[in-house]
Amino acid sequence: MKKLFAQVLISLLALGCMACTACTTTEQPPAPPPKPALPYKINLVWQHDHKPEVDLSTLDKVPGVNVVSPCWYEIENEYGKIKDKSVEGYVERAHARGYQVWPLITNGFKPDRTKKLLDDENAKRFVIEQLRQQYQKHKFDGINLDFENIYEADKDRITEFVKQIRKATQQDKLILSMDVTVPKGSPNWSLCFDRKALAEHLDYMMVMAYDQYSGSSPEAGPTAGYDWVERGIKNTLEEVPPHKVVLGMPLYMRLWHYDNDNKRFYAKTLSMPGSEKLIAEKSSDETFRCRWLEKEKVTYYSYVENDVPYSFWQENKTSLAHKAGLLKQYNLAGFATWRYGFEKPEVWPMLEEKLKEAEPAEDKTAQPKEATENTDKSKNKKKKKKQS
């Protein structure tokens, strides 16, 4: 009888411990959501060259833009030598306008060169040393990696290289971002990225949700149909947390024509002002057609000239506004647009408004702290120069 009583007592004590454990687990507060590297949504624009008409360090402040990414650096050989196109005084001028500056570095889109570089530890160290020297010279705020056209077999090597770059940028307290394509594409342009692994070493991942139909495509199609863009973002979010995902959008489109001799399509880049000029020129032609595509959320235009059919899917304020709505819908980290100079000015206030709509309620009136601090530093430097 005593033995039976002891067994019952042990069982009751065990159940009590389990109940207490369950209660303790239930009462634990949920872990706070991860925070982005910066306390505000990103609105980045790439600056492709340094012609006066597109130099963001000298032009008036673009509404809503808080980060500029000038295309300054290219790894030009397998030994890691960097081609430098940086501009003296650019960062100070950009800071004075309220921008952060994240210069872009590219691998030149050369897969063989990239493979040899990734196999050479000395070459990779050389790249990192040069980037740190450039930081010491210019005092920019971050780095934007644009490594593309990489062999799929080098997927792990490119991740390891980014990890090494990350260690250096952390020492210098720099933001590190990287441009990647949407998932499930070609081996050299999409499957070469281990997005989940890369995200562990990045502050932001710019998803280049454009070139749905690239300039070399044998078929004609939109640059960034809404349905395709949303699918690309959803697929990315399966591997990358939303507070690191920046939606890349095009400020351009392509004008397609069909070559009857070669039996294929060819394309050239068309800016937003260029597309409107073309519409004005061709709208009276009897072959001119246009229609709104609800799924892609763009307007499709076509006409015939000298028996050659032409077509384009227009990117403008309306089409971008639909895509920009994904920022709030999926709580993404911000926008990135390629590239400054292709747009119409009306695009910027719209994107600024979309950015404000996506900010948490308590942050909607907040100013980018870093940009404000940099502006103050630039003003103080100017005062000291005047006093001296």
How does this structure look, described?
The chain has 388 residues and is an alpha/beta fold. The chain has a domain of 256 residues: Alpha-Beta Barrel (TIM Barrel). The chain is built from 13 helices and 15 strands. It has an eight-stranded parallel beta barrel, surrounded by four helices. A five-stranded antiparallel sheet has the order 11-10-14-13-12. A hairpin with a 6-residue loop joins strand 2 and strand 3. Helix 4 runs parallel beside helix 5. The protein starts with a helix and ends with a helix. Keywords: Hydrolase, Signal. It comes from Succiniclasticum ruminis. GO terms for molecular function: chitin binding; hydrolase activity. InterPro entries: Chitinase_II/V-like_cat (IPR011583), Chitinase_insertion_sf (IPR029070), GH (IPR017853), Glyco_hydro18_cat (IPR001223).
